[in-house]
């Protein structure tokens, strides 16, 4: 794996997406990002002390199996955090949660060619030793806050990157999900309602108790 370290960058995902000669298994790790991006067009706060990194994979899988990339990345982070003494779970599709607060966000950007994902940029931001900004204190948490001590963020990143190459599976992903079988708030861009998520299917869709299947592009879930 080729690993690039940088003090400051706009976005590690953008760096890998713009590479003229994309090289398989290139990772970039930044101390700070000035234009960190989140899912659904949101920005992602990236203060010093956090772990901000992206990995480029070429030809990772068939397009129909692309949810596996999300599952693998979420599990890779959960397993790495566990190795450092932090017990985390996944909020579908791939937010990593500790004590009801977000400790890590993942942004996966795929390029599809016919039946295949020809390129996948897996971007991961973990609150490690960074100070959580006042305005997000109720919804975000850091490793430092959980453990009451700082850890080596580079060692945590190395563990996640290692895990990204493990053969992880859907059952393992499902076992680590929060809110399955519980009533949650479902938010679409037109309405908000309550329902129960019966299961997350291997294609990545949430199956609600009434049989409806919805993708994470269509809905966001919130605990009650
Ligand atoms: C989210 O929670 O909405 C996803 C956040 C993903 C943030 C990471 S930090 C490294 C990589 N570079 C980015 O610009 N975003 C991802």
Give an overview of the whole structure:
By secondary structure, this protein is α+β, with helices and mostly antiparallel strands. It contains 5 helices and 12 strands. It has helices at residues 12-17, 67-83, 143-147, 153-163, 170-175; strands at 2-9, 26-33, 51-62, 89-91, 95-98, 101-113, 116-126, 183-187, 192-200, 206-208, 213-214, 220-223. Strands 1-2-3-7-6-5-4 form a 7-stranded mixed beta sheet. Helix 2 crosses helix 4. It is globular, with a radius of gyration of 17 Å. Bound molecules: biotin (BTN). Biotin binds at residues 11-13, 33, 36-39, 42, 44, 52-54, 95, 105-107, 123-125.
Primary descriptors:
224 residues, 5-stranded antiparallel β-sheet, alpha+beta, 12 strands, 7-stranded mixed β-sheet, globular, binds biotin, single chain
Q: Which quaternary structure do these chains form? A: single chain
Determine the fraction of residues in helical runs and give it as a percent range.
10-25%
Low-confidence segments, ≥5 residues, pLDDT <50? none
Instruction: Give the overall silhouette.
Output: globular
* Order of the strands making up the biggest sheet: 1-2-3-7-6-5-4
Using the CA coordinates, give the radius of gyration: 17 Å
| Main sheet summary | 7 strands, mixed
Number of strands: 12
Summarize the SSE layout with pairings.
Layout: E1 2-9, H1 12-17, E2 26-33, E3 51-62, H2 67-83, E4 89-91, E5 95-98, E6 101-113, E7 116-126, H3 143-147, H4 153-163, H5 170-175, E8 183-187, E9 192-200, E10 206-208, E11 213-214, E12 220-223
Parallel strand pairs: 1-2
Antiparallel strand pairs: 2-3, 3-7, 4-5, 5-6, 6-7, 8-9, 8-12, 9-10, 10-11
Helix pairs in contact: 2-4
Bound molecules: biotin.
């Amino acid at each position: 794996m080729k690993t690039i370290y940088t003090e400051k960058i706009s976005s590690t995902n953008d760096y890998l997406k713009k590479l003229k000669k994309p090289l398989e298994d290139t990772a970039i790790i930044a101390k700070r990002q000035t234009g960190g991006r989140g899912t659904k067009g949101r920005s992602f706060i990236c203060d010093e002390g956090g772990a901000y990194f992206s990995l480029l994979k070429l030809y990772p899988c068939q397009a129909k199996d692309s949810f596996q990339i999300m599952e693998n990345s979420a599990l890779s982070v959960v397993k790495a955090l566990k190795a450092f003494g932090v017990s985390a779970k996944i909020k579908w599709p791939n937010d990593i949660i500790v004590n009801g607060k977000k400790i890590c966000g993942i942004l996966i950007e795929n390029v599809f060619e016919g039946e295949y994902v020809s390129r996948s940029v897996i971007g991961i931001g973990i609150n490690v030793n960074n100070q959580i900004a006042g305005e997000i204190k109720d919804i975000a948490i850091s490793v430092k806050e959980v453990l009451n001590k700082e850890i080596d963020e580079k060692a945590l990143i190395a563990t996640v990157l290692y895990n990204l190459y493990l053969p992880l599976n859907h059952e393992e992903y499902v076992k680590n999900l929060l809110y399955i079988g519980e009533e949650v708030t479902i938010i679409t861009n037109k309405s908000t309602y309550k329902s129960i998520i019966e299961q997350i299917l291997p294609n990545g869709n949430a199956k609600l108790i009434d049989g409806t299947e919805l993708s994470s592009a269509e809905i966001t879930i919130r605990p009650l």
